[in-house]
TrEMBL record:
<keyword id="KW-0472">Membrane</keyword>
<dbReference type="GO" id="GO:0051301">
    <property type="term" value="P:cell division"/>
</dbReference>
<dbReference type="Pfam" id="PF20666">
    <property type="entry name" value="ZW10_C"/>
</dbReference>
<keyword id="KW-0206">Cytoskeleton</keyword>
<keyword id="KW-0137">Centromere</keyword>
<feature type="domain" description="Centromere/kinetochore protein zw10 middle">
    <location>
        <begin position="117"/>
        <end position="355"/>
    </location>
</feature>
<keyword id="KW-0131">Cell cycle</keyword>
<keyword id="KW-0813">Transport</keyword>
<protein>
    <recommendedName>
        <fullName>Centromere/kinetochore protein zw10 homolog</fullName>
    </recommendedName>
</protein>
<dbReference type="GO" id="GO:0006888">
    <property type="term" value="P:endoplasmic reticulum to Golgi vesicle-mediated transport"/>
</dbReference>
<dbReference type="InterPro" id="IPR009361">
    <property type="entry name" value="Zw10_N"/>
</dbReference>
<dbReference type="InterPro" id="IPR048343">
    <property type="entry name" value="ZW10_C"/>
</dbReference>
<keyword id="KW-0256">Endoplasmic reticulum</keyword>
<keyword id="KW-0597">Phosphoprotein</keyword>
<dbReference type="Pfam" id="PF22766">
    <property type="entry name" value="ZW10_C2"/>
</dbReference>
<dbReference type="GO" id="GO:0005634">
    <property type="term" value="C:nucleus"/>
</dbReference>
<keyword id="KW-0931">ER-Golgi transport</keyword>
Length: 719
């Protein structure tokens, strides 16, 4: 029983081995047949083909003969050889040397065919570039040409080469058509289409010759900085029509052997490859610059939208585009958004340029000055507030209730001063932008309104930073900046109210205001000017510190130092007076100069009253120094350039200099007797008592007079 089973199993194994060997043998034989058949076919074709490679004419002829066999060769190679290879690989027999050799042979033959097809491609589609790269872009474009060999010219030749369709079909069968078209499309975009889209002076010229069509450039003089969209569309359309007719409008059947028509649309393939880059180029180099800068021109943009639609429809007819709307047309149709974005960007850029321009170029502002913008349009009827009509009788009654003494018409106007010309233009820009918003769409109006607010936020951040050094060092610029801030704050008070009824309804709910920005601008101007005042005060005190405390004036060196210090202080004050003249408003000018002069006088008073001993000669010289200040001090008050108009303010020095009267009393004390001092004290009711405290007067008496009974009696009266 066991031997029988063993025999059966052994017999079965032998059968299985025999069957496997038979199959391997048969498969090997089939592979040899395929290899022989393929190699024979390739050898036969290439034995005819390769010897003639030295002659270009023979090469074209031989390639044309091969064109009819490409499908069969490809079919045989791919259908039988490659299928068998895959089958053998799947059965794990790929380690056989014959299969590796066959696979390598197929790859080599395929690359050979691609090489020769590439040579034919270069003959059918040629590029001519300038010999030197060291030329301008325009010159480079003018020397660039695209040569397309025509189908008709090939048919008329005595020994015609392979047709364009044959070469393209061969690339398609070998799986290289996409690569070739993509390479051609990128070059077409770079050297033909982009220059047409970006340079307004270039236009394409189509030149027909017996064998080829040439696409080249010519240039015309133009004042345009950017090309017109409609012109660019026409130029590009012309080029694509030629390329489509000569190269892409050819029927290709992907499966010739089975007679199944699966038509390859070359134009669609090329369009898919380059359209995204081309549309982006058209937007950035053309459509962006066609966006109007004024809302009144938006209606004219409909022509550009229409030309964009016509351009896309033409490309669809040539199969470059599919049916869906592209980004190019979407961009053109979304003009309101683009207009608002561009307008806002232009406004901010213009504002920043004004903010970074020179501050010292100024214009004079008077109470009667107005922003030079067109009159605001009347609000629409549906936006008007319902105002009740007042009868003539009621009106007269109201008029009769007015007080006899009315305010001046300029009571709430900005006082006369000088501001930067750039700031005046900045406010005009704000008014112009809001005026633009009144005639814009709701979306655009909102964007423009907040762009105006952004202008003032930007001013608050940019100007103090950009001009920091000059604002710290130059007192005139600090004064101008102070005026600029006050000028802006003055207009911000009513800016929103003026446009409240004319803007989009969404902005008419109380949000159209700029009043919240007013305190910040006032603070910005005030802080800058006060910082300059502190700097000037520091310089004045530093100069007075060289006066040697006004002590021992009988010493010539001490007196000379004190006299020099006083002269320097007066010179600085006069220089400031000239620098701020006709710049600051009169009231601000007088307060500023009065504060600085008062600081100087207060320092002098403090130093003199602190002296413990003042001799007669010291007193005379101190009096002389004080008289210099008293005589020349009022001259620093010259707010107006007309000298005769400044006398009024020079006479009002005590109003602006708090320490002026105490200074006069100090001068009197330096020359007065004990009796005169007592009389001016007048039991604490005289002018001396109003200027100094009893302790200060007693200290001065002790310093000025020797210790006598008369001095003691005088001191006793000072209480």
């Amino acid at each position: 029983m066991a031997s029988f089973v063993t025999e059966v199993l052994a017999h079965s194994g032998r059968l299985e081995k025999e069957d496997l060997c038979t199959r391997i043998s048969r498969l090997t034989q089939r592979v040899e047949e395929i290899k022989g058949e393929v190699c024979s076919m390739i050898s036969k074709k290439y034995s005819e083909f390769l010897p003639s490679m030295q002659s270009a004419h023979d090469l074209v002829t031989q390639v044309d003969k091969l064109s009819d066999d490409i499908d069969l060769l490809k079919s045989r190679i791919e259908s039988e050889a490659q299928i068998c290879l895959k089958l053998l690989k799947s059965r794990k027999c790929f380690d056989l040397k014959i299969l590796k050799s066959l696979s390598m042979e197929l790859t080599i033959q395929k690359q050979n065919i691609l090489y020769h097809l590439g040579e034919e491609w270069q003959k059918l589609i040629g590029w001519k570039f300038p010999p030197s790269k060291d030329i301008s872009n325009l010159e480079s474009c003018l020397q660039t040409e695209l040569h397309l060999c025509t189908e008709q010219s090939q048919k008329e030749e005595k020994t015609p080469g392979p047709s364009i369709s044959s070469v393209l079909l061969a690339f398609s069968l070998l799986g290289e058509l996409h690569t070739k078209l993509k390479s051609f499309g990128q070059m077409l975009l770079k050297y033909i289409l982009r220059p047409l889209a970006s340079c307004p002076s270039l236009f394409a010229v189509i030149e027909s010759q017996p064998n080829i069509i040439i696409i080249r450039f010519e240039s015309v003089m133009t004042d345009l900085e950017h090309p017109s969209p409609s012109e660019v569309f026409a130029k590009i359309r012309l080029v694509l029509e030629v390329v489509q007719k000569q190269l892409l409008d050819l029927p290709l059947d992907a499966d010739v052997e089975n007679e199944k028509t699966s038509k390859i649309i070359l134009a669609e393939m090329l369009g898919d490859m380059i359209w995204e880059d081309l549309s982006e180029c058209l937007i950035k180099n053309c459509l962006v610059y066609s966006i109007p800068t004024n809302s009144s021109k938006l209606q004219q943009y409909e022509e550009i939208i229409q030309s964009t639609e016509e351009f896309e429809n033409a490309l669809k007819e040539m199969s470059f585009l599919k049916g869906s709307t592209t980004d190019l047309l979407k961009y053109a149709r979304n003009i309101n958004s683009h207009f608002a974005n561009k307008k806002c960007q232009d406004v901010i850029v213009a504002a920043r340029n004004l903010m970074t321009s020179e501050i010292h170029n100024t214009v004079k502002i008077t109470p009667a000055s107005k922003i030079s913008v067109p009159d605001l349009p009347s609000p629409a009827e549906d936006d008007k507030l319902q105002v009740q009509k007042v009868s003539t009788t009621q009106y007269n009654e109201v008029m009769n209730l007015e007080p006899e003494n009315t305010l001046d018409q300029h009571s709430f106007s900005l006082p006369t001063c000088r501001i930067s010309e750039s700031v005046k233009k900045l406010m005009e820009l704000a008014y112009q932008t809001l005026l633009e918003a009144t005639t814009s769409s709701d979306q655009c109006a909102v964007q423009l309104f907040y762009s105006v607010r952004n202008i003032f936020h930007l001013f608050h951040d940019v100007v103090p930073t950009y001009h920091r050094e000059n604002l710290q060092k130059l007192p005139q610029l600090a004064a101008i900046h102070h005026n600029n801030c006050m000028y802006i704050a003055h207009h911000l008070l009513t800016l929103g109210h003026q446009f409240r009824l004319r803007l989009a309804p969404i902005l008419c709910d109380g949000t159209t205001t700029f009043v919240d920005l007013v305190p910040g601008f006032r603070r910005l101007g005030t802080e800058c000017f006060l910082a300059q005042m502190r700097a000037q005060k520091g310089e004045l005190l530093e100069r007075l510190s060289s006066a040697r405390n006004f002590s021992n004036m009988d010493d010539e060196d001490n007196y000379s130092a004190a006299s020099k210090a006083v002269r320097q202080v007066l010179h600085q004050l006069k220089r400031l007076g000239i620098v701020w003249q006709d710049v600051l408003p009169v009231n601000i000018y007088c307060k500023a100069m009065g504060t600085l002069l008062s600081t100087t006088i207060s320092e002098i008073i403090g130093r003199i009253t602190a002296l413990e001993d003042i001799s007669t000669e010291d007193g005379d010289r101190l009096y002389s120094l004080c008289k210099t200040v008293m005589d020349e001090g009022p001259q620093v008050f010259a707010p107006l350039s007309e000298e005769n108009k400044n006398k009024k303010y020079q006479e009002e020095v005590p109003v602006y200099v708090p320490k002026w009267m105490p200074f006069k009393e100090l001068m009197i004390m330096l020359q007065a007797s004990l009796q005169e001092i007592g009389d001016r004290w007048a039991d604490g009711k005289g002018p001396l008592a109003a200027a100094f405290s009893s302790s200060e007067v007693k200290a001065l008496i002790r310093a000025l007079f020797q210790n006598t009974e008369r001095r003691a009696a005088a001191l006793a009266k000072i209480k």
